[in-house]
Amino acid sequence: MNETDIGAYGVPLAMLAGAIRVSTPFLFVSLGECLTEKSGRINLGLEGTLVFGAMSGYAISYLTGSPWLGVLAAGISGCFFGAIHGYICKLPKVNDIAIGIAMMLFGTGLAFFFGKPFIQPQAPHLPSISLGFWSDLPQVQSALSINPLFLVGIVLAVFMWWAFKNTRWGLIIRMTGDSAPAALAMGYSVDWVRFLATTVGGFFAGVGGAFLSLYYPGAWSEGLSSGQGLMAVALVIFARWNPLACFGAALLFGAAGALGPALQSVGITQGYYFFNAAPYLLTLFIMIASVSPKRSLKGAPGELSITK
Amino acid sequence: MSALAQPNAPRRAVELETVAMTKIFGSLVALEDVSIHVRPGTLHALLGENGAGKSTLVKCIMGFYQPTRGEVKIDGKPAVIATPRDAHAHGIGMVYQHFTLVPSLTAAENLVISRAHPPAVIDWKKEIKGLEAFLDTMPFKVPLTVPVSNLSAGEKQKLEILKQLYLDQRFLILDEPTSVLTPGEADEVLGLLRGMTEAGDLTILMISHKFREVSAYADDVTVLRRGRMIGGGKVGELSVADMSHMMIGDTKIRERAARKTFTDRPVVLEIAGLFAEDDGGIPAVKGVNLKIHGGEIVGIAGVSGNGQSTLIEVLSGQREPTEGQLFIDGADFQPVRQQMAKFKVFGLPEEPLKNAAVPRMTVAENIAFRTFDEPPIASRFGFMSPKPMRKQARDLIASYRVKTPSTEEPIENLSGGNVQRAILARELSGEVEVLIVANPCFGLDFASVSEIRSQIMDQRNRGAAVLLVSEDLDEILELADRVAVMSGGEIHYVRPIAEADRASVGMAMSGH
């Protein structure tokens, strides 16, 4: 045994590292979804936005050589998808969930179509910040090598939590999400607020996608997203529409996603695929545990089509 | 009118007048030549049945509708009100019957966001201070930092009124402001508002159908019927009989069936130790025990939201109780379809279009819900034959006078009273042992109300055990043999009707 071998402690450490690494796309998509749902609309299309964001971010990073331009491009393409969703939902008798599913398929399909030429080439990656310099252990150093987007995500979560309470826009979004008649009575355009919230939510999801292709796993391929965009919807419900809780839930999902690789790193390879399914099992479990046929969801915006 | 506008008229209260207000929707004349004059610093009542044009009139004043003819004068000067915003600019605010507060926001958040120009970033310390200073000048208090969904109906109503005053609206239109309040709360709110009008701070136009409140608190009254102004004047100069005659005109009201007296009827329905939770998982019904005899109407009074709807949902099988049992004739009763048919349990839940009908199915189908799986509608192999179904519907439509274009009309196209009659026809056409009724007359006109109450009384006289839940205390005092009061999910007060008086029932409703 050499001194850098930390044995079974490697599993929680690897899970922590994984949580930080894997949670970022969860965090961005769930914050985007949280914003959209707070305004009273569900955007199931964020999975498509995520995949398209991953593709466009990678493509722009490859073409311009700047990964940050890639992130911006991913966000803008996310805005575009959010805006389409928001616009279509403004039309009468349109169901936001059906449009969301259509947008999900449209986004992934479009990403595969435009993304074919970018599967092989190597695009420049996002840099990371080493916060583990104080430790001699390479495991700790690698665990604490953190992508700036993760930190941006934390700041964003805290900002959204604060803004929902302390800004005019926060209150307007919560108002349209909870009682459209009240918002209308005060002269706010419910459709316009929701359109903006969906568009900005799409931006966040696009950025989350860019993280997938530009940092971890770090390449564009068609199997890049494994349903993070959809799991984020469950995550928002689990987090009870609270951006801070979204952060915690994203870490939890990230840790669950890191369970398989973490066990593999200490030599446990049995049931690798089973442990890899942990996030999906967690989603299922959370949905069962957090809902009940007898009562409605606490904290759910009153205008959501799932709570009506 | 110039005689009324005194030179030293109070500064803040607004004077409002409508001149020959007319509103025509297509071929329907909703409002015809209505001229009312609301003196500044008074409480003016607007009386009328459903569909009499009260809402059309106030919506024209508020700028939701543009009148076909006529105009609004404010403080004697013609005013152009094209949108609700214009009305607000003139100091006219409206408190709606349904709340316009946002449930998940606190009272303070609701007040701040209702301002025309809320700050981009809200300094809560400063705002709370300002709001507290504002509340100090107001006659009623509301907790500021609690989400509105946790406030009682009375507090919400007060907050709605406070919101208008906070926005500096000095002409308030109140749409049935006391419908969700206990008699005590209603007296408190109306008394305080009356105080503000007398002090000249406020002018109020109140839509109401409660003569008691109009007589006690209003200065003037205007009565509308079928879109026309029928009469009005100073409240002191009009009797309740005058007002009610103006309101309903010469419509024939069905005579109420006389109350048959029974002695020693057995207990039919027994509710034993019933507990149930509401949608939020919070206990809403807490240990209700009640026995209802055959040939008896037990009326459960109470302000809405005290567990009555949850109780009705349990009794009609819409909700599982957490504890407790139901018995009919001493046998265990589960509210499922087979047992309801076996024990002859029928019901008329509140909002029948939502709770007892499928809105987009036809009248005939809705009427057949209790019988579609039995002959003659169902054949031996489980196929339904539409002919006997339509025949049954035609017969019941005729005998219960349901106004519908045909048996094949979706039931949602019928008016409220006719939906209620169609459901009543379905529920009461057979033999009824137990009848569970909730707010049966909510929002109906006089003729329908009278009809439906007679039907309920008929069932009682035939020996059915009737449980009547109503938010309308007058309805309970009129129909019930025994009065029970539900408050906070519990029933403490049960009295024979002869021993129940309005004051003690009112006390029990507010939980004392």
UniProtKB/TrEMBL annotation, chain A:
Membrane-spanning regions, if any? 6-32, 68-88, 97-119, 139-164, 195-217, 229-253, 273-291
Its membrane topology: Multi-pass membrane protein
Enumerate the UniProt keywords alphabetically: Cell membrane, Membrane, Sugar transport, Transmembrane, Transmembrane helix, Transport
Lineage at the top is: Bacteria, Pseudomonadati, Pseudomonadota, Alphaproteobacteria, Hyphomicrobiales
This protein's record includes keyword Membrane: yes
Output this protein's name. Answer: Simple sugar transport system permease protein
The subcellular localization recorded is: Cell membrane
> What CDD domains does the entry give?
TM_PBP1_transp_TpRbsC_like
Superkingdom assignment? Bacteria
TrEMBL record, chain B:
State the family it belongs to: Belongs to the ABC transporter superfamily.
**A Pfam entry, by short name:** ABC_tran
Alphabetical list of PANTHER family matching this protein: CARBOHYDRATE TRANSPORT ATP-BINDING PROTEIN MG119-RELATED (PTHR43790), GUANOSINE IMPORT ATP-BINDING PROTEIN NUPO (PTHR43790:SF4)
| CDD domains the UniProt entry points to | ABC_Carb_Monos_I, ABC_Carb_Monos_II
Q: What is this protein called?
A: Simple sugar transport system ATP-binding protein
Superkingdom of the organism of origin: Bacteria
Is Transport found in the keyword set? yes
The ABC transporter domain sits at 14-251, 269-511
Sorted UniProt keywords: ATP-binding, Nucleotide-binding, Sugar transport, Transport
Please name the GO terms that the record assigns under molecular function.
ATP binding
Q: Which InterPro entries match?
A: AAA+_ATPase, ABC_carbohydrate_import_ATPase, ABC_transporter-like_ATP-bd, ABC_transporter-like_CS, P-loop_NTPase
